[in-house]
Design a protein that fits this description.
The structure is a homodimer. By secondary structure, chain A is of the alpha+beta class. Chain A has a single domain (about 5-95), classed as Orthogonal Bundle (Arc Repressor Mutant, subunit A). In chain A, about 60% of the residues lie in helices and about 15% in strands. The first copy, chain A, has helices at about 5-15, 20-30, 35-40, 45-60, 85-95, and strands at about 35, 60-65, 70-75. Chain A has a three-stranded antiparallel sheet. In chain A, a hairpin with a 2-residue loop joins strand 2 and strand 3. In chain A, helix 1 packs antiparallel against helix 4 (about 45-60). The first copy, chain A, starts with a helix and ends with a helix. The mean pLDDT of chain A is about 95. Chain A binds a DNA duplex through helix 4.
Chain lengths: ~100, ~100
DNA sequence: TAGCAGTTTAGCTAAATTGCTAACTTATGT
DNA sequence: ACATAAGTTAGCAATTTAGCTAAACTGCTA
C-alpha cells in the first residue's frame, strides 16, 4: 500500500469526521434529501450546511441533483454506514 | 439519535482520518507493534508518531502495554478495517 | 549510579477547519 | 421585470491540528 492510497482514504474519513456531517450521512442513507431538510435536521446556518455538503461531495461520498430551486443530495456509498455499529462498539468498550 | 452520539462517532473517525494513523491502524490489524516499528513504518519523527498514537488511544480504538522499555500498541476494534474496502469503492466510483 | 534506548510531554509555528454574515446566483411565480 | 425562495461563494475571526526540536521520563544494564 502506497502513501497516496492512505491519503485518499484519510480524505474520505475526514469528510465524515464531524457530528453534523455524520448526521447528514445517516439521514441520506434513508434516501435523498434537499439542503433545506438537512439544514433543519442539523440546525446550523444554511451556508454552513452547504459547505459541509460540498466537502463530502468533493470527497466523493455524496452527489447532488437540482430540481427547480432545490438541490437534492444522495449518498453514493451506502456501505459507509456499516462502520457505525463498529464505532459504537468501540465506544462501549473504551480503554483496556 | 442524539447529538452527543454523533460527536462521539465523529471523534473516532477523526482519530483515524490521517494518512499516518490509517497506516498504523492497518499495521496494527496484523497484531501488536511497538512504537519503534510503527515509526519506521510511517517515517515521521518519534514524538509525532507518539502523539498520533495518543490520539487514537484517547479515542478508544487502540490500547498500549509496556514491555521493558518498549510500548506495544494493539487495535481494540479490528472491525474498523472493514470500512477500507468500502472507501476504496467510493474512490473508484467518484463523482456522479 | 551512570548511561543508554525507547517513549512521552512541552512549547512553538504554520496550516487547516469551523462557523458566521454578507453578497451573489439560479430558478419560480406574479 | 421584480420579488422571493433555495443554495453557493467569499471573507473574516477563533479554534484545532500537525510537525518539529528540546527536554523530561522509564526501565534496562554495566
Amino acid at each position: 500500500m502506497n502513501t497516496r492510497a492512505y491519503e485518499l482514504r484519510a480524505e474520505v474519513l475526514k469528510a465524515m469526521a464531524h457530528p453534523a456531517r455524520l448526521m447528514m450521512v445517516d439521514a441520506l442513507a434513508e434516501g435523498e434529501k434537499c439542503v433545506c431538510e438537512l439544514q433543519k435536521l442539523v440546525g446550523s446556518a444554511m451556508p454552513t450546511v452547504s459547505r459541509h455538503l460540498a466537502q463530502m461531495k468533493s470527497a466523493g461520498i455524496i452527489a447532488s441533483r437540482r430540481d427547480g430551486n432545490k438541490m437534492y443530495y444522495r449518498l453514493l456509498v451506502p456501505c459507509l454506514t456499516n462502520v457505525f455499529p463498529c464505532i459504537d462498539e468501540a465506544l462501549g468498550a473504551e480503554q483496556a
